[in-house]
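Why do we bother with holo predictions? Because pocket geometry can differ from the apo form. Keep that in mind while you read this record for threonylcarbamoyladenylate.
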Amino acid sequence: MYDNISNGEWRVVTVMFAGENRKTAVWKVNPVSPDPTVIARAGQILQEGGLIAFPTETVYGLGANSFDANAVSSIYTAKGRPSRNPLIVHFVGEEMRKRLSPVWPPLAEKLAKAFWPGPLTLVLPKSPDVPDVVTGNGPTVAIREPVHPVARALILAATCPIAAPSANRSNELSPTLAGHVLRGLDGRIDVLLDGGPCAAGIESTVLDLSGERPRILRPGPLSREMLETIIGPVEISGGHLGEAHLPSPGMLLKHYSPRTPTVMVRSPEELGFDEGHLAVVTFGPIGNVPATVVVLPGDPAGYAAEIYARLHELDDGRFDRIVIVEPPDTPAWAAVRDRLKRATHRAD
Ligand code: TXA
Ligand code: MG
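The structure, written out:
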């Protein structure tokens, strides 16, 4: 900022306001055709070991060069994530895919034909080239080819697959807008590519193909039924396993949570309004209630696209509690219900 000093000359002075001393550069990009110069610079930063947050069709990712063990370690530091929780590696094209896993089972080929590029993550045996820090020292690697033009352009500019968890602090809500990323990671990453909202709004479906039978480790935008139409029966990880046998940290009960105490009720009739300043999240008509009411779309995809953004907003709204009205217990709502269960889990 400029300051008029006593002798009438202008000089530049640095004024630091709280929150303005960020080191994270925010670069706006067109989500359909991002500026190649901006993307090239971001790709170079990844090559040099930096961290870049970028939009995908599910949620924003926090990316590093997947072959650079130091860069990948810094993802864990930025997120405050336990290093045994493995990351998803994002790639474009068959050549890059082959560098990540030495095997390519027929089931993977069928699924890739049907759903890649898109919100499906496959767990396969890892190639020795993939550093152990990416896979939490495990023998498998989770890979996905994203469809979002910014994610694809960034991977191609970096000329390497990008390891990227969701761009939030560990255990907090995933980001579906650039502002959500800054909320948790401002000053902790080099660059945030702001490409607007993420379409799906919840994280990819994670399918383990490394065992005897295909198994969903995390439900997501592609439902079990959709996968089964392509490859036949798919198992689903039921219940919540203890940490000792955690196949996927997305299965930890406390995950994806707002900071505000958040609970779920079966129906609006169960609401108790004597407990302070409440926000209610529902998906259908609701009578006159003494609370801030957020009505989300009544279809699972529409609801998923908005839920994290609404929870981020409500979390900033100084409510005593957020109350979520439970969506129907049907297969189409499985992924949304999974995220809501985690968001409303209390450790006690
Ligand atoms: O949509 C998404 O998947 C987003 C975008 C950025 O691609 N990413 C994302 O990453 O949600 P993250 O790290 O928040 O979640 C990755 C999930 C976790 O549940 C993790 O346990 C599981 O994938 N995962 C990663 N590698 C695995 C492996 N080798 N075996 C089993 N699960 C794995
Ligand atoms: Mg995550």
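The chain has a mean pLDDT of 89.
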